[in-house]
Amino acid sequence: MVLTRGKTMFSIGDKVFYGAHGVCIVQDIQKLTFSGKQKKYYILHSFHDVSIKLYHPVEAKDSKLSPITSKEAAEVILETFKNPPDDWPSRMNERTQHYQKVIESKNHVQIAQMINTILRKKFELEKEDKTLPNQDLLMLEQVTSLFSEELALSFNLTAKQVMKKIEEIILAN
User: Fold this and answer.
1) DSSP string of 83-134?
2) Which end of the chain is more exposed for a tag (fewer CB within 10 A), N or C?
3) 74, 75, 80, 20: which is closest to 52 by C-alpha?
4) How far is 100 from 98, CA to CA, in rounded Å?
5) d(CA 84, CA 92)
6) Cα-atom radius of gyration of the chain, to the nearest Å?
7) What is the reported pTM?
8) Contact, 40 vs 55, CB < 8 A?
């Protein structure tokens, strides 16, 4: 979908992915005034917590909203988990910088490969009775919760079922 001036990309009732907020539902589209400027805004509610209300300009140059991944695209994304892991930088700050670049790319395949790498490292360490460094574990938890939530909608599953499917793919490969 392309956003054209004067037209909205999303409609009331659409489920959208909104960056760090995850899946949201477009509840309304209204002209609102913030900082003395009147614009059209999407009024969003978190998919899992309707008490969270968010506002996003309809005509934002660098919009953080995107459509939910289609089932076909989600199937391609799942294939990523059959790949071997990427190289594991030994320095935490290098990994953190890499994670941020991947997340900012908004590329689902790259994000899946990052999750694949971290999960494989986690499983490898667990075999040695070791644990993943806390920062990596936190990153994994944050990213997988948003990632699995979106894929769950694509497959009409729960996020927990999606993560189980991902782990099964990794362990089989």
Assistant:
1) SPPPP--SSHHHHHHHHHHHHHHT-HHHHHHHHHHHHHHHHHHHHTT----H
2) N
3) 20
4) 5
5) 21
6) 18
7) 0.82
8) no
Cβ atoms of 26 and 76 closer than 8 Å: no
Q: Contact 132/138 with Cβ under 8 angstroms?
A: no
Residue 55: per-residue pLDDT: 93
Tens-level pLDDT at each residue, the chain (173 residues): 333 333 458 999 999 988 778 899 999 999 999 999 999 999 999 987 888 999 999 988 888 888 999 999 999 999 999 999 999 999 999 999 999 999 888 889 999 999 999 999 999 999 999 999 999 999 999 899 889 999 999 999 999 999 999 999 999 99
User: Residues 6, 29: contact at Cβ < 8 Å?
Assistant: no
How many Å apart are CA 16 and CA 149, to the nearest integer? 11
Burial of 98 (0-12, 13-18, 19+ CB in 10 A): middle
Q: Phi/psi at 102 (nearest 5 deg)?
A: -65, -45
Task: Phi first, then psi: give them for residue 165, nearest 5 degrees.
Answer: -60, -45
Residue with tokens 């300009």: 57
